[in-house]
Amino acid sequence: MRPEVQAALWHWREVLLGVALAALAGLWAFNAFGILRILALVLLAFAVLLILTGIQRGRFRGRGGGQGVVQVIEGQVSYYGPLTGGAVAISELAALSLDGRSKPAHWLLVPDQGATLQIPVSAEGADALFDAFTGLSGLRTEHLLRLKQSGAPRLQVVWRRKDVQAMINSLN
To answer: What does the pLDDT average to over 78-83?
Structure first.
């Protein structure tokens, strides 16, 4: 198999698995009866959720192969880069931005205290940030995906914690 085909299949792996499960569940639902049909319909619902989640994850994933490595372990994002690095707990984030002014673009994780953590979107393991970011209270996933895919050469605020947003609003 050609490497670019293999990479494309791996990029959309959840969607492909969901489609395969949906086809299997549809076949079972059509040919079965009773409790097996109910189980097939439950499996079909799971497959649809897997497809929808896979589409979001596929849109978030980058090409990889960039500088540094990202790890997300128990709510803490760590970045190990050739020149910089650091760690930030997701629970301590005050803001999340996407800086498209540099190539490649960088995620900016701003903690309550301490230095901002800059992570290239193409860093190895950066796709794990999707799960970490979707755990942020009030983050709109579609907004996050739209900003990432736009590739706009500017600094874009993706999310701010509510108390930080309220403080900014009171200053205006």
So the answer is: 92
Single-letter code of the amino acid located at 6? Q
What gap in Å lies between CA 107 and CA 104, rounded to an integer? 10
Of 125, 144, 126, the C-alpha closest to 134 is 144
> Could you check whether the bond before residue 104 is cis, i.e. omega within 30 degrees of 0?
yes
CA 97 to CA 120: how far, in whole Å? 12
- B/e letters for 83-101, b = 16+ CB within 10 Å, e = fewer, are eeebebebeebbbbbbbbe
pTM: 0.74
Comparison of pLDDT for 64 and 47, the residue scoring more = 47
Residue type, 60: F
Please give the DSSP secondary-structure letter assigned to residue 116. Answer: P
Per-residue pLDDT, 59:
83
- Please give the pLDDT value at position 164: 63
Sheet holding 93-99, edge to edge: 117-120, 106-111, 93-99, 155-160
- CA–CA distance, 29 with 42 (Å, rounded to integer): 10
